[in-house]
Design goal:
By secondary structure, the protein is mainly alpha-helical. It folds into two domains: about 5-205 and about 310-340, 3-Layer(aba) Sandwich (Rossmann fold); about 225-305, Orthogonal Bundle (Tyrosyl-Transfer RNA Synthetase). The chain is built from 13 helices and five strands. It has helices at about 35-45, 60, 70-85, 100-110, 115-120, 125-130, 135-150, 165-180, 225-235, 255-260, 265-275, 280-305, 310-340; strands spanning about 20-25, 50-55, 95, 155-160, 195. The strands form two sheets. A three-stranded parallel beta sheet has the order 1-2-3. α8 (about 165-180) links the parallel β4 and β5. The protein is globular. The termini are far apart. Residues about 1-5 have low confidence and may be disordered. Bound molecules: tryptophanyl-5'AMP (TYM). Tryptophanyl-5'AMP binds next to β1, α1 and α7. Tryptophanyl-5'AMP (TYM) binds next to β1, α1 and α7.
């Protein structure tokens, strides 16, 4: 029997009939297992249960990435990853943010409802500035574009990692402010979206125990393999408790990663070995390496096949974009109407 956890532990939300799932991923580098367990796994679990719109947010990536080839390559990478991991294009929409340029129009309308001071307090914005990124206007306004992404499809449920909580909070405020400003009280245009954040994977730790993030250089890539993967797993930071001594699994980073892959019984077995002593961090790392290989092995192969067929990927994105755009355009007609933006065509 497989020891790998592949289904969602939390029940999916209620009010399924009216739920529209939306989420986005930046093509700003290689996807890592933090992206997967924090968000993409939930995207895949939900995409056959509800109408779902998932976009590759290349406009957002432009806030930090100014390299044409890298952006194009990363974009294909993200799309191929979704397909390899099980996204079924007949069930939901996967597309490029830039194939729905109406999101930038909606973002512009939202800018007029958001105090600059609020944006300047953004945790993610401040963290990026602290890291030395240029505080360009795109970076400051990032959460407003994200709100447009969510609201333009009538999104009501947004599966993300915990680092996105504040952005979803801002989206909720913007939706409320828009409804209050422009819509009759009994006929709001935008639903107020809820974040969907699973506690056990809200912040996946990286090799050094800090949040796994491309910008910290502490990631395990979704499709890392062979020696490179082994080197990373073996470099996971642990304390220096000797092999024979009992260890506390809840204090250990390797064990934290193991819990992502192993089912409850396997987790308990390994936790018991930690506590008993005679089980070293090297053993735990080996176990983790095996789990990663088993979990992602098939997807890796599909990923490499897909990356060799960029036209196929682009066809899927094109079709997803057409559907996404049709939905967005319908929304924008109503937005224009309630705000008083005349249209003459
Ligand atoms: P991005 O590309 O930075 O991250 C994609 C998703 O991965 C999650 N994530 C993590 N979850 C748990 N542990 C980690 N270490 C970890 N690292 C990343 C993120 O929370 C995210 O869900 N702003 C979004 C992109 C976006 C978006 C949207 C999301 C743009 N528009 C509309 C939802 C709806 C972001 O930063 O993605």
């Amino acid at each position: 029997m497989s020891t790998l956890a592949t289904t969602l532990e939390s029940p999916t939300p209620e009010s399924a009939a009216t739920t529209t799932v939306v989420s986005g991923v930046q093509p700003s580098g290689e996807l890592h297992i933090g992206n997967y367990f924090g968000a993409i796994r939930q995207h895949l679990a939900l995409h056959s249960q509800h109408p779902a719109y998932y976009f590759i947010v290349n406009y957002h990536a432009l806030t930090t990435l100014h390299d044409r080839e890298a952006l194009r390559q990363n974009t294909l990478h993200v799309a191929a990853a979704y397909l390899a991991l099980g996204f079924d294009p007949s069930k939901a929409h996967l597309f490029l943010q830039s194939d729905v340029p109406e999101v930038t129009e909606l973002a512009w309308i939202f800018y007029n409802l958001v105090p600059v001071s609020r944006l300047e307090l953004g945790v993610s914005y401040k963290e990026k500035i602290d890291r030395g990124l240029t505080p360009n206007a795109g970076l400051l306004n990032y959460p407003v574009l994200q709100a447009a992404d969510i609201l333009i499809y009538g999104g009501s449920l947004v599966p993300v990692g915990a680092d996105q909580r504040q952005h979803i909070e801002m989206t909720r405020d913007i939706a409320q402010r828009f409804n209050h400003t422009f819509c009759p009280e009994d006929d709001p245009l935008f639903p107020i979206p809820e974040p969907y954040i699973l506690d056990n994977v809200a912040i996946v730790p990286g090799l050094d125990g800090k949040k796994m993030s491309k910008s910290y250089g502490n990631t395990i890539g979704l499709f890392d393999e062979g020696k490179a993967l082994k080197k990373k797993v073996m470099s996971i930071v642990t304390d220096s408790t000797p092999l024979e001594a009992p260890k506390d699994p809840d204090e250990d980073n390797v064990f934290a990663l193991i819990t992502l892959f192993a089912d409850k019984a396997k987790q308990e077995e390994i936790a018991a070995a930690y506590r008993a002593g005679g089980y070293g961090y090297g053993h735990a790392k080996k176990a983790l390496l095996g789990m990663i290989n088993t979990y992602f092995g098939d997807a890796r192969e599909r990923y490499h096949d897909l990356m060799a067929r960029p036209d196929y990927i682009l066809d899927i994105l094109r079709e997803g974009g057409e559907n996404g755009r049709a939905q967005a355009q319908q929304f924008m007609e109503r937005v224009r109407e309630v705000t008083g933006l005349l249209t003459t065509y």
